[in-house]
Amino acid sequence: MDGGKELILSERLLAIAQWIRPGSRVADIGTDHGYLPIWLLQHGRATFIAACDMREGPLEHARRSAEQYGLQEKLSFRLGSGLSCVVPEEIDTIVIAGMGGETILSILEAAPWTNNARYTLLLQPMTKAEVLRPWLSEHGYSFLRERLVLENRTYFPIMALRGGSACRPLSLGQAWGGVALQDDPLQGGALDELLRLRTYALNGLERSVVPKNRERAEQQRAILVQLRQMKGEWLHANGKRN
Ligand SMILES: C[S@@+](CC[C@H](N)C(=O)[O-])C[C@H]1O[C@@H](n2cnc3c(N)ncnc32)[C@H](O)[C@@H]1O
């Protein structure tokens, strides 16, 4: 960091930023305030950054933020949906953070060129991680690592992936509880929260008289069995008692 004032990132964005290797060429899709690109420039993590958003308002916000830190000339601001506004050859790292898992999925579905080993993808779904994880794994994106961040009493997963791998299905437990979180210190709490929410959903389904909900209840039970098993394994692996 040289000279000017330093931008302080939230823990969630900092966790993503710290996974970006110095010298990367980054596309930040859905940049909004532009804080992540600014931090990356300030810390010499990226040699090129496309700060992209589908809406003019957020992109203007990113421009204003960059101006505040004197970095507006060093960022490339792009207006467009998903990855439509970047050229595959200009980047090697794709960040899609702060959106729903289904939106992230549809952005990647519209850009099949990302399914290639030359790209590192850093994804941070706010919701529906259980939909995003199996889609990624079944479409040849392999999980390099995952971690959790706890912000405002909510657990957010952050995933690093690489395309161009063999497609493989995930278990229900992996879809809901994560693929590479066995050693994460926050995983015990995150699994407890998932167990609480899934139990609540199951209780509702069991009270229902709609026939289709019997099938849904069965699926919730299967998810709960696998999440309980994951919790036991996490306790064991991390030297904690049940
Ligand atoms: C909640 S903000 C997240 C900002 C930042 N990435 C973060 O994690 O703090 C979501 C941003 O994504 C943008 N967005 C949503 N869908 C998008 C899409 N398909 N393509 C590009 N930007 C999108 C929105 O306009 C908004 O600015």
Low-confidence stretches: none
The radius of gyration over CA amounts to 19 Å
Would you tell me the structural class of the helices and strands?
alpha/beta
What string, H for helix and E for strand, traces the elements in order?
A: HEHEHEEHEHEEHHH
Give me some keywords for this one.
242 residues; 8 helices; alpha/beta; seven-stranded mixed β-sheet; binds S-adenosylmethionine
Give your account of this protein's structure.
The radius of gyration is 19 Å and the shape is elongated. A 7-stranded mixed β-sheet has the order 3-2-1-4-5-7-6, sandwiched between helices. It is 41% helix and 21% strand. The longest helix has 26 residues. It has 242 residues and is of the alpha/beta class. The termini are far apart. It is built from 8 helices and 7 strands, in the order αβαβαββαβαββααα. Strand 4, helix 4 and strand 5 form a beta-alpha-beta unit. The chain binds S-adenosylmethionine. The site of S-adenosylmethionine (SAM) has 17 residues, from strand 2, strand 4 and helix 4.
